Amino acid sequence: MSTIDLGANLERAAAPSDASLVGYVSREEHGTNALSLLVAGAHCGACVARIERGLSQMDGVTSARLNLSTRRLEVKWRGPAAAADAIVRGVERLGYDAVPYLPETLTERDEAADKALMKALAVSFFATANVMMLSWAVWLGHGGGMGEGTRSFFHWLSAAIALPAIAYSGRHFYRSAWMVLRRGRTNMDVPISLGVLLTTIMSLVETALGGVYVYFDGALMLLTVLLLGRFLDHRARAKARSAVQQLMTLTALPVHVRREDGSMEAMPAGSVRPGDVVLVAAGERIGVDGIVLEGQSSVETALIDGESIPKPISAGDAVIAGAANIGQPISVLARATGGGTVLAEIIRLLEAAEQKKGRFVTIADKAVQVYTPVIHILAAATFFGWLAFGAGWQVALVNAVCVLIIACPCALGLAVPVTQVVAAGRLMKTGVLLKSATALERFAAIDTIVFDKTGTLTLGRLVLDASGIPQEALALASGMAARSTHPASVAIRQALPDQPSLDDVTEQPGEGLLWASAAGDVRLGSTRWCGLADEGSNGIAVWLTRPNHAPQRFALTDRLRSDAARTIAALKTKGYAIEMLSGDRGSVAEKVADATGIADWRAEVSPADKIARVEALRAQGRAVLMVGDGLNDAPALAAGTASIAPARAAEVSRRAADAVWQGEALAPLLAVLGVARKARTIVVQNIGFSFVYNAAWVPVAMAGLVTPWIAAIAMSASSMLVTFNAMRLGRLPKGPR
User: Fold this and answer.
1) Membrane-spanning residues where (predicted)?
2) Does residue 452 carry a catalytic annotation?
């Protein structure tokens, strides 16, 4: 493929300018640079395809992805970071404006765009109302003997009102159309601008010649309806992308750093360095991931993981960026900042899910690319067709204008992207983060769900059953356990957290703890470590042995997720087949299966066995959702039709999964399956409606049965309909009912 000249070679175009974008470039793995840009003027799938194709053909660019709803362009390339300036110039040469995608300016830009559209709409509406009154006088005068001079005066008066209004209010469309036309390309604003300007020019010519085909009222009505549709569409898309935008805004909040000399310094969260101490006042949001150094408080993390119940925190507890401090002031030792925080990773996952292209997106984009040039061909055919049948050029031009307006593929271009954005945002609010847009389609096809046990149906954290344990034995065990980070020790310590720790406790990895008391050695650990006979598979336990006392058993359980049984029951009700595969012992797995109501389960299953079972189910024609968290679950997660892992899963499992859910509840699983199925239905509805709309209205327009302003109403209504149809996803129930 030949490389188009969008700024020539990136190496040659990398010389820094006075306003270099190097500071906005992030360095990724394998020497790849990445830049996020906010693109103005892209309104349809054809615009997206043009920008992505044009940038991908630049030397060094490895990928370019534009999200139509969020307007965010993500470009990656190999070469110097200074080539970012060439990237932006490349976008501008394609006919679009591009600036760095900064969270602190998103709301400001949206408000500015809203104000500009409102001003244009107000001017257009005022002019339309006045010209319509003059037009009514002319229409009524046809039957009342209005003279030629009076009619001509009213036409010129209409022109005096209409021309300035059309010039001012239509700038949004004209500017966008001119930018692409001068590069030999087109977008949806081209037919809109042609329609408005051709109608206006024809009316001005007819007015000068004393003709009757004067449509200043129609041109203004057309422009007013188009501006109203663009304004409502802008508002609807802003609401659809609010999930990412809200999270992006959190990353731009200022934080207060305490310096070594005790002074305070306010700075953006991204400027904080690991090791800095950040002070968080009551009511503020935490700007970094870190550890609480001082203070006790509560944090609310609903925007991050969907958990509405505040969590108590104190010195030593981990906190994440974006969480709201709703109690007392605290100080936090920063561990991860900027792009390294959990919040930044959530944003990356959410945007990746919105920007990646699934099967339906590809279908819609290809249809738009084919359909856009067809619009102009149909309009030209309409014009010359009416001329061939003996109509005047004025009638032929009006009908061609109607085709240009009514056939814009706006609805088709929005059919899928807006649904993806709303679905990803809806799931984010329930704590589910999609990592792939294609996963949403695959989640919708699921009929069988395979669960791992530990860390999936259970929380993966041991809990001590302290009933029947003497207080003095529990106190001794808690004092010894304070010196260990083993999960069993942590569980025992949590049962009596205020017990003072014992000195001179040693730990034998994999065995247990030893404390040399005045009476002799005290051991806490496995039966072998304590010199006891193996108790077989009778649950999870550790033992305490000490001189002159009988051995004391400490029974531990891996607590089920609070809603596990309820969620499994709801999944069964919806028709899903449920299985559980566990590497644990049979007695332990059986207890969990009985507690959750899972009849089909297997214990002591190896990673290879899990893969074999998932592949066997798929060979039977099942669409399998694998739910797991451990390192040993990663291969099975990759083998499933789709997969999901809890946020606390092993890193390799999170990477292998198609989605990640936050929090301790299992209910988000219901949400992702329900939203996926509804999203598939809405996408099919939107694409179907787009094709039906064009199939129905284009012939009507070619037949001369609509006026320009009716065409504008139809076109704007089609775009708003697919957008509002997609936004129904935001009203789905959150959990099992």
Assistant:
1) 120-141, 153-174, 186-205, 211-232, 368-389, 395-419, 683-703, 709-727
2) yes
